[in-house]
Design a protein that fits this description.
Layout lengths: L3 E2 L18 E3 L9 E4 L6 E4 L2 E4 L8 E8 L1 E11 L3 E8 L5 H4 L1 E6 L14 E2 L12 E12 L2 E6 L2 E7 L13 E6 L6 E10 L6 E4 L8 E6 L6 E5 L2 E5 L2 E5 L6 E8 L5 E8 L10 E6 L28 E8 L2 E6 L2 E6 L9 E6 L5 E11 L1
Parallel strand pairs: 1-18
Antiparallel strand pairs: 2-15, 3-6, 4-5, 5-15, 6-14, 7-11, 7-15, 8-9, 8-14, 9-10, 11-12, 12-13, 16-28, 17-20, 18-19, 19-28, 20-27, 21-24, 21-28, 22-23, 22-27, 24-25, 25-26
């Protein structure tokens, strides 16, 4: 039950290519894609030409280019080239797995000079917030972009003019997006060119606790319940907790009001759950709330549901693929987001005591996996 083994090895991030006195670091060396990797598409989706990163026809959705490093608060700058029809953008706080523009933020790049800015115009926080103005140069010109993220403030400049100045907490959708993640480039099959990519990291403001990120974090958990017929098996496999059999794995610490962030993966029609505010005794305890993990669209309680209390909106997830999940408890309120969508909101929680967080292995003969489990106390 406590067997541990490493799977693969950590990928070392490349050293900074050049650093300025003010801490600004180049993210692109002008010759290679070192420090970047193509996601959800072929390796040919992005290439380097004449000192710029270029999107090719194979960069069509959902392909995107992801930085190896993750960032929280930062000052990012780049140049982009526009000639003809161009569509794409820059991702902020994009997750390693899941929808980058729905879990993180997409600042839109578009060739059209809209007289009345729209939520899909150049400089929009796509597809939610129109820019203050559209000032893209589109006749075969280089444009400059600057993105300043100091949560909750987001400011964007295009060609030295302010196009966004947002308090993200004031927007009902953006306030729940990831606050840390990868930088990313999207080209949607168009030959956008990017150059002079550089970033200066700023101090972080949120104190997330790692519940399970590396194998050493397994000591923060204990098996709280195990079936006699099908004993629970929770294994620390490198950066992944793999659950099998029947039972629960609980945190040693307890939490009352918090936001939980993690990635989940399961086989076809998987079934399991996450218990919150529990006694640390699994389903044999007298108090807990269960957030369901059940990828069956017609299920009474599909993934994201508050079991027994409220059914979720069926989320956009796929069997066998990692998906991000956020669970937020604050007093009587519970919110669940799955892969960038809010699938459940409920404000009738009666149990407001602190409790354990538990991972459930529910269906003997199958498995569930969890990784990058972090919590923020509210």
């Amino acid at each position: 039950m406590n067997r541990r083994e490493f799977m693969g090895s950590a990928v070392a991030c490349p050293a900074a290519l050049a650093a300025q006195a003010d801490g600004e670091v180049e993210l692109f060396d002008g010759r290679t894609l070192q420090g970047w990797s193509v996601q959800e598409g072929p390796e040919s989706a992005f290439h380097v030409l004449e000192g710029a990163i270029v999107g090719s026809e194979s960069s069509q959705h959902p392909a995107w280019l992801r930085s190896e490093r993750q960032f929280e608060n930062f000052d990012f700058r780049c140049d982009f080239f526009v000639r003809g029809w161009i569509d794409g953008g820059v991702y902020l706080h994009a997750p390693r797995c899941g929808r980058p523009g729905a879990n993180g933020i997409l600042v839109k790049i578009f060739h059209q000079r809209d007289q009345v800015p729209q939520p899909n115009s150049m400089g929009a926080v796509f597809p939610l917030v129109a820019p203050a103005r559209v000032n893209v140069k589109n006749q075969g010109d280089w444009n400059s972009m600057r993105i300043l993220m100091e949560w909750p403030r987001l400011k964007v400049w295009v060609n030295d003019e302010t196009v966004q100045d947002l308090d993200l907490t004031s927007h009902p959708e953006l306030r729940h997006r990831f606050r840390r993640g990868h930088m990313g480039l999207s080209a949607l099959g168009y030959p956008i060119r990017f150059r002079n990519l550089r970033i200066r990291e700023l101090p972080g403001r949120e104190l997330w606790e790692d519940l399970y990120v590396t194998e050493g974090d397994f000591q923060k958990w204990f098996v709280s319940e195990s079936s006699k017929q099908a004993p629970a098996r929770f294994e620390a496999l490198g950066g992944v907790i793999r659950a099998g059999g029947g039972g629960h794995l609980a945190t040693r610490d307890q939490f009352r009001d918090f936001e939980l962030s993690l990635f989940v993966r399961g086989p076809k029609e998987h079934n399991g759950g996450i218990l919150v505010r529990s006694e640390g005794k699994g389903l044999s305890g007298s108090r807990y709330y269960e957030i369901q993990l059940h990828n069956v669209e017609d299920a009474h309680f599909p993934t994201g549901s508050l079991y027994y209390y409220k059914r979720s909106i069926y989320p956009r997830i796929e069997d066998g693929k990692w998906f991000p999940m956020q669970i937020r408890l604050e007093g009587p309120r519970c919110m669940v987001r799955v892969n960038g969508d809010t699938v459940l909101e409920y404000d009738g929680l009666e149990n407001r005591e602190e409790g354990h967080i538990e991972l459930q292995a529910h269906r003997p003969g199958t498995w569930l996996e969890f990784k990058e489990i972090r919590v923020l106390r509210l």
